[in-house]
């Protein structure tokens, strides 16, 4: 096993430590003294324009961060990932989400298998299925076409598909709707199916092993609802499951036992982590919704960013630079959180998607060789769409005591160009996107507040310190390709941070203990007294209270 480089022992870390100690952030002055600053710290990434100039960044800091990437071998580990080496060391697996979007003309042999050929074989099956549903060729048990597709999954099998579906709603075929069930709370399933017609509903069960507790519980509840609803309409249920349920899974025996035709199961591989799987067969629901051509465009967006990340040196590599900036803020400014603020309502689930991607990947306290980390790792990702967030939590970002780096994402061309009188509403919206980063960067001095005639006693409350770091991302429009580019951008940001910190960003052992304990506690909740006595006193108390109050 290759031992990770301790970043704190590198010359670049020493340089960054001194630069931080000497740094007196002053974005007002930096911009005033350097008319080329915005241009120098802005980059093209596929269709994305990325402006890093309002970060706490100087040429010296950028160069030291790029040197840090070289000294901990981010480029080498990146190349190992692309080549299919088993960089997920705790599970002894390759990490090949980038292979999911490579063109069919490529070839990549991993463990004796051409993974690109395998990917495209599955994609062609997914596309053929999607076309059958979209065209009406696939019909339900009574011969009616499908109008609603319900995806049942959890984690990466839900967060990715639902986020992309919401982002690309304008591209969804007319007359087709998708819904998503993930939470094991019965209310989720009940609410999602209560107004559906079983004759026109198709369910996709997404579980690689077909054993995920939440997914299979929801699948059984959905199946019970479906069969009951058919019977209530006087329709025979014989053979109905195979007409209305398909699977994203490799466990064909379990799929068949459920009643699904194994021919309608679409697989993926151990080298695809759940939070990196939306561009695999897990995205089958998306291929149905936006069509094979839309899904191909989606994959092409990923691949454009993959190529940039694979070929650009650290100082010109946008995902790498953004990941290194996050390290700069976490390890030198003690930033504990990072806000992602899309000024695009269709991206309203993007921050939630990034929570799993970033926090499940980099929420680690040991390095990939099992030794303790030598720095703080990870940060809490969060956010809401603008302008809603402006009226909720921006107060803390502007005037709070914590440094909160923030990414602002917007598109130039809206899906719904509307005017309010003579005012272009999207331009009003984008004015807020631009104003917020300017306000965070440049603030407002006491002298400026006084000049507005503000009473002296409330001047301090109206001062904005400024020098709050932001990154601005602007895309031409929210197309399938652009959504793919945004996802790939943050995948590689996350990778970069993980390599600097020396952690395995591709396992998730932290989610296992709670799931294991839930299985052990379940008998106690269900009335097993011996199991109850085995619990701690707090758990016992809560279970007894639950039993007393359950009606």
Written description of the protein model:
- The protein is an alpha/beta fold and 551 residues long.
- The protein contains 21 helices and 15 strands.
- The protein has helices spanning 11-22, 27-33, 37-40, 59-71, 74-83, 115-135, 156-167, 186-193, 213-232, 240-244, 252-258, 284-311, 318-332, 350-362, 394-399, 425-442, 446-451, 480-501, 512-525, 529-533, 537-549, and strands at residues 42-45, 48-51, 109-110, 113-114, 148-152, 177-181, 201-206, 245-248, 265-266, 337-343, 380-382, 406-411, 419-420, 423-424, 470-475.
- The strands form 4 sheets. The chain has a 6-stranded mixed β-sheet with strand order 1-2-15-12-10-11, with helices on both faces. It has a 5-stranded parallel β-sheet with strand order 6-5-7-8-9, with helices on both faces.
- α7 packs antiparallel against α14 (350-362).
- It is globular, with a radius of gyration of 25 Å.
Keywords:
5-stranded parallel β-sheet, 21 helices, 551 residues, 47% helix, single chain, 6-stranded mixed β-sheet, alpha/beta
Compact overview of the structure:
Helix 13 (318-332) packs across helix 18 (480-501). The chain is 47% helix and 11% strand.
Strand order of the largest sheet: 1-2-15-12-10-11
Radius of gyration: 25 Å
Biggest sheet overview? 6 strands, mixed
Low-confidence stretches: none
Mean pLDDT over the full residue set: 97
| Share of residues in strands | 5-15%
Could you say which structural class the secondary elements and strand pairing correspond to?
A: alpha/beta
Per DSSP E runs of 2 or more residues, the count of β-strands stands at 15
Query: Terminal Cα separation, in Å?
Result: 55 Å
Task: Tell the overall outline.
Answer: globular
SS summary, helix count: 21
State the helical fraction: 40-55%
């Amino acid at each position: 096993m290759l031992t990770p480089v301790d970043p704190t022992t590198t010359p670049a870390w020493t340089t960054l430590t001194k630069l931080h100690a000497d740094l007196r952030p002053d974005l007002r002055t930096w911009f005033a003294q350097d008319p080329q600053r915005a241009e120098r710290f802005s980059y093209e990434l596929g269709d994305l324009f990325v402006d890093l100039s309002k970060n706490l960044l100087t040429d010296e800091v950028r160069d030291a961060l790029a040197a840090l990437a070289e000294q901990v071998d981010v480029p080498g580990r990146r190349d190992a990932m692309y080549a299919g080496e088993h960089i997920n060391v705790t599970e002894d697996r390759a990490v090949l989400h980038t292979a999911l979007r490579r063109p069919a003309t490529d070839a990549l042999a991993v463990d004796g298998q051409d993974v690109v050929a395998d990917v495209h074989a599955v994609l062609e099956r997914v596309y053929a299925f999607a076309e059958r549903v979209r065209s009406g060729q696939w019909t339900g048990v009574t011969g009616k076409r499908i109008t609603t597709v319900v995806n049942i999954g959890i984690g990466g099998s839900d967060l990715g598909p639902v986020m992309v579906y919401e982002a690309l709603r304008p591209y969804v075929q007319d007359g087709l709707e998708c819904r998503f069930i993930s939470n094991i709370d019965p209310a989720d399933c009940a609410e999602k199916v209560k107004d559906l017609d079983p004759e026109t509903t198709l369910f996709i069960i997404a579980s690689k092993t077909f054993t995920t507790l939440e997914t299979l519980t929801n699948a059984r509840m959905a199946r019970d609802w479906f069969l009951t609803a058919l019977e209530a309409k006087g329709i025979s249920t014989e053979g109905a499951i195979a007409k209305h349920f398909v699977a994203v899974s490799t466990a064909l025996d379990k799929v068949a036992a459920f009643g699904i035709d194994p021919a309608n199961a679409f697989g993926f591989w151990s080298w695809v982590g759940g939070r990196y799987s939306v561009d695999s067969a897990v995205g089958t629901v998306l291929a149905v919704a936006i069509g094979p051509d839309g899904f191909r465009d989606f994959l092409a967006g990923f691949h454009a960013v993959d190529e940039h990340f694979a070929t650009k040196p650290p100082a010109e590599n946008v995902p790498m630079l953004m990941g290194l900036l996050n390290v700069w803020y976490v390890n030198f400014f003690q930033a504990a959180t990072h806000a992602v603020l899309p000024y695009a309502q269709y991206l309203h689930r993007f921050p939630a998607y990034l929570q799993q991607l970033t926090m499940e990947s980099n929420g680690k306290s040991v390095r990939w060789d099992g030794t303790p980390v030598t720095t703080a790792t990870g940060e809490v990702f969060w956010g809401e769409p603008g302008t809603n967030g402006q009226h909720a939590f921006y107060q803390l970002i502007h005037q709070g005591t914590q440094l909160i780096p923030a990414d602002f994402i917007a598109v130039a061309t809206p899906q719904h160009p509307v005017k309010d009188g003579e005012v272009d509403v999207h331009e009003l919206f984008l004015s807020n996107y631009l104003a917020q980063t300017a306000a965070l960067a440049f603030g407002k001095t006491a002298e400026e507040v006084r000049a507005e005639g503000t009473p002296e006693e409330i001047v301090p409350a109206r001062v904005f310190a400024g020098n709050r770091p932001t990154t601005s991302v602007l895309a031409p429009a929210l197309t399938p390709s652009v959504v793919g580019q945004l996802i790939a951008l943050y995948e590689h940001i996350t990778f970069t941070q993980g390599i600097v910190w020396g952690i395995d960003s591709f396992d998730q052992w932290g989610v296992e203990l709670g799931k294991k304990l839930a299985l052990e506690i379940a008998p106690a909740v269900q009335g097993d007294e011996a199991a109850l006595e085995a619990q701690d006193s707090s758990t016992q108390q809560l279970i007894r209270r639950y039993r007393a109050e359950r009606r």
